[in-house]
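Preliminary data (for renewal application), nicotinamide-adenine-dinucleotide complex.
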Amino acid sequence: MHLKIALLEGDGIGPEVTVEAVNVLTAVANHGGHVFEFLPLPIGGVAITAYGKPLPDHTLATTLQCDAALLGAVGDNKFNHLPPSERPEAGLLQIREALGGFANLRPAIAYRALADNSPLRPEITEGADILFVRELLGGLYFGQPRQWDRQTGRAHNTMVYTAEEVERVARIAFHLAAQRPKKKVTSVDKANVLETSQLWRSVVTEVAQDFPTVTLEHQLVDSMAIHLMTRPRDFDVVLTENLFGDILSDESGVITGSLGMLPSATLGGKVNLYEPVHGSAPDIVGTGKANPIGAILTAALVLRHSAGLEAEATLIENSVTDILEQGFRTSDIARGNGEANLPGQRTVTTAEMGALILDSLNGKLTRAEFPIPTLQV
Ligand code: NAD
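Predicted structure:
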């Protein structure tokens, strides 16, 4: 397999965590005889400094020629004086839009070893394994017309969906659910009030008929916000529109317990875009405190959704679980503020955590612990 990967490290801790993601991908390539070609490209603040804009033309043009894009994070306080359209974050919004991915995947997993990190009680979160599939290009965030009329003191946005927009993201959600053990889709809407949600519910119900092995349930978004915190184990794939997905997937971050643990993938566009959920974390840049696990789990998603290497993706995920079970922690997921090595816990740096996971992965690859068959989206 030959995979060309645009490497968009970006700002702050972006480069620190991305290198650890590249290391696990390289290990998989070396063991499997694959070629993963990484093309480093500037985006965000580093691109403004070098090229005067957050998404240089050659970054976008080259990314569009790649099979996948792996992004670290963007954002640098030294550009806060610029208007929003010229700041580092604008580069991220521009590349997301240009790549055109409409299905944003965000897993929310309760790791047994991190049960104490969640504000939820361990008996609530234990065993929770949710995959959010959020529609990313439609709904309230993009609908026209939109306006804030300062003179009249009136503002409005438009929530709009077409059946086609709903169907394409629903198909991805059902396809993924069909390959997971629980085989369940929970579609979230507000069909008791909104016409867009009534369309959403009707299209999702139709799509479900093409996936007879998958169970479909509908939930209203307000009660879903409660269910996710009181019985997260009951959910498998959660499919929802842009605004609801933005809020619910952030809310579900508490199940895992740290922003530094969360990966994401955006599928369906010209090139799939993979990025950890966190930002550039200027408060910890250069301290070795950045947790690379979100980026490493993002690398697993690259293998799963752009390379068809499901077994290898699972090995990366199992390596993360194993290292956490052995008590290794970056400071964001350590008890006692990460300053002390408490019983059963050893606090490590970004690079040390990356090396531990890499070692564990290399061992698994050598022993060829390939647990499950190939899956592809
Ligand atoms: P942030 O995610 O960068 O940081 C929030 C808090 O979480 C900070 O205390 C940070 O130290 C911590 N944190 C984040 N990632 C971590 C990791 N991997 N390991 C350990 N701790 C981690 O969000 P913010 O502080 O609101 O924003 C900082 C900058 O990042 C801003 O410029 C913002 O615009 C940008 N941002 C970028 C993205 C992105 O690139 N996708 C996302 C969010 C924010």
